[in-house]
Amino acid sequence: MKRVPVGRRNLFAERRRALLGVAGVGVALLMVLALDGIFAGAMKRVTAYIDTSPADIIVSQRGVKGMHMTSSSLPLSAVEDIRRMKGVSRADPILFETNSLKSPKARALSYVIGYVPGGRGGPVTITKGRPPGPGEIVLDESAASKLGVSIGSDVSTLGRSWKVSGFTGGLTNIVNTTAFVRFDDYAAARGTTGTASYILVGAESPAGAVAREIEKETGLTALPRPEFSREEAKLVRDMSTQIMQIMTIAALLIALAVIGLTLYADTLARLREVGVMKALGTRTRRLALIVLSQAAWMAGAAMALSIVLAFALAAVMSRAASNISIEVTAVSIARVAIGAGVVAAIGAVAPLARVARVDPATVFRRQ
Amino acid sequence: MDDVAIRAERLEKVFGEGDVQVRAVRGIDLEVVRGQVALIMGPSGSGKTTLLSMLGAMLRPTSGKVELDGVDLARLPESRLPDFRATRFGFVFQDFNLLSSLSALENVQFALNLAGTTGRKSRERAEALLRGFGLGHRLSFRPEKLSGGEKQRVAISRALANEPSVILADEPTANLDSKIGHEIARLLRNAATEEGRSVVIVSHDTRLKDIADRVLWLEDGEFREINEMAVDPVCGMAVERKPETPHYQYEGQTYYFCSPEDRDEFAAEPTKFIPDRG
Ligand SMILES: Nc1ncnc2c1ncn2[C@@H]1O[C@H](COP(=O)(O)OP(=O)(O)O)[C@@H](O)[C@H]1O
Ligand SMILES: [Mg+2]
């Protein structure tokens, strides 16, 4: 049942047009893949502080289920109440807000965390230097390089200046970075007494049950860490989806324009041949399949190109150790493939309409 | 079924309405039997293309009918015409009309696909046809790499691929030099003689008379008697023998021309155009 693949031949007969079309669509699809990948990479890092925390349960102000763009405040006395509960091994308060880090060279938006030395809220790894002493701060190394500071430099945040004592890693994403100071310093800088933002809890028995107990006992909100991480991710995702969707649609529209115009130009250039095919007895249905297969080959080739480019870009980005990491996921490839399919189908509409109108009798008329 | 492959009866085509109405074909009757080559000649605008389009089921007649192998084409629903064209007709065009992105082989295979022959079978049949016409070394060439004669041989292979009853050829030799034109004419003649197909050729080329069983002269949408015809000795085209046609008397004979320019050229030096009567 194999037939001459006219659509594919038509596409690749005009090498230059095919190449330009495939490259154009490929780059547009790459934009979608890269955006998706940047987003996936960012999402992974957005919750990095929570995901790497040794806490099993995170307790927050009643009704607060995240950190991003939120503020949580609870009485410090709750720490003692929780410590006394059954199934709880430890409870450490942290103070938290989103603020900006300023150096003479630059500024960076940051989660600023005040933790009790020896407690569980501090940096999990110190890549260089040491944890903060009084009046000192630990920065993420990629934020430090952006700010142009090294150990011993001064950085200001929370309305005062701090001396950099060490670096941590993996806690910077495209939105913000993370910095650590001592709990008491933080409280003094903010003029608060007797309050904390969150309490990080270690559990001896299943976290879900302990969290429920804590909620009952204190009236605060307590979530097992994975759940808190999911809520946090959702919060960020909800805030970014709209812009992501707009950019994805814009990129797909570019792909649509390129496919549509390339295909239409090619169809116009071939109208005479369409007339010949009709005269020879080709049904409009078969002609439609020819146009559609040409569109599909173009979208398919562009898709393959965009996947290769996306992986290449991801590799370059990770080698460049930048704050932007690109995660090309199977889900986003599937999404882009569907997008490309839809775009190819829509791009074929105008050429199809034109092809359907061709009168076979024109073949005997000379232009 | 009689021996008539294609028959037209009181075939009529009117374009437009009212003041701009054109009766392009006016009540034509025509029968072509199997194995016969009919050559239709006539000045431009006489309705040749219109007639050929109706014979080939590409244009609906205003009235009258076209019968192919006993089936009235005018009564067939639109949806059945493509299959009819694919299986019962072979078309040959002046400008070859090969599909430019396909190889010679694929051009022929494409026609076979339309009639339901696909895969290896279509490949073998296409290859056999092309080899038969001496194109074995050109199978994978795209049309742009072929000479005019080669292109027309591919086109004839395509026209013959589905063993049609009727071959309709529109000026098949116009874009070819005379030697190649003669060869193409012979191939069309063979399709009639050896394979029993009916061949209808529309052409200005008087040399095609040599291979035609019948020559028909079309003018203003109607057939005229062929003995009213003469050949322009300058350009070799057939012209009508009547008072309005540019003509010239020379040594007791009247010569007819398709244009006053040809006549003047002839008058300047008649001996250059008259074959030696020695
Ligand atoms: N689609 C059309 N619409 C209107 N008039 C047409 C059309 N096709 C042909 N005609 C007219 O019909 C006449 C015959 O044309 P045609 O069949 O092309 O003649 P030929 O092929 O002998 O040159 C001409 O007067 C031409 O202008
Ligand atoms: Mg014509």
Draw up the topology in text.
The complex is a heterodimer of chains A (367) and B (278).
Chain A: H1 6-13, H2 15-46, H3 48-52, E1 57-60, E2 74-75, H4 77-83, E3 88-102, E4 107-115, E5 128-129, E6 136-140, H5 141-147, E7 154-157, E8 160-168, E9 177-182, H6 183-190, E10 195-196, E11 198-203, H7 207-218, E12 221-224, H8 225-269, H9 271-279, H10 284-319, H11 330-347, H12 349-357
Parallel strand pairs in A: 4-9, 6-8
Antiparallel strand pairs in A: 1-11, 1-12, 2-10, 3-4, 3-11, 5-8, 6-9, 7-8
Chain B: E1 4-15, E2 22-33, E3 37-41, H1 48-55, E4 63-68, E5 71-72, H2 81-88, E6 89-92, H3 104-114, H4 119-132, H5 148-160, E7 166-170, H6 178-193, E8 198-202, E9 214-219, E10 222-224, E11 229-231, E12 238-240, E13 247-250, E14 253-256, H7 260-268
Parallel strand pairs in B: 3-8, 3-9, 6-7, 7-8
Antiparallel strand pairs in B: 1-2, 1-4, 4-5, 9-10, 11-12, 13-14
Bound molecules: adenosine-5'-diphosphate and magnesium ion (MG).
Output the keywords.
heterodimer; A: 367 residues; alpha+beta; 10-stranded mixed β-sheet; two-stranded antiparallel sheet; elongated; B: 278 residues; alpha/beta; Rossmann fold; 2 domains; 6-stranded mixed β-sheet; 4-stranded antiparallel β-sheet; 7 helices; 14 strands; 28% helix; globular; binds adenosine-5'-diphosphate; binds magnesium ion
Account of the 3D structure:
- The complex is a heterodimer of chains A (367) and B (278).
- Chain A is α+β, with helices and mostly antiparallel strands and 367 residues long.
- Chain A has two domains: 6-46 and 235-366, no CATH class; 62-219, no CATH class.
- Chain A contains twelve helices and twelve strands.
- In chain A, helix 8 runs parallel beside helix 11 (330-347).
- The model of chain A has no long low-confidence stretch (mean pLDDT 90).
- Chain B is an alpha/beta fold and 278 residues long.
- Chain B has two domains: 4-224, Rossmann fold (3-Layer(aba) Sandwich); 230-272, no CATH class.
- Chain B contains seven helices and 14 strands.
- In chain B, 44% of the residues are buried.
- The model of chain B has no long low-confidence stretch (mean pLDDT 90).
- The chains are: A alpha+beta (367), B alpha/beta (278).
- The structure holds adenosine-5'-diphosphate and magnesium ion (MG).
- Adenosine-5'-diphosphate (ADP) is lined by residues 15-16, 22, 24, 42, 44-50 of chain B.
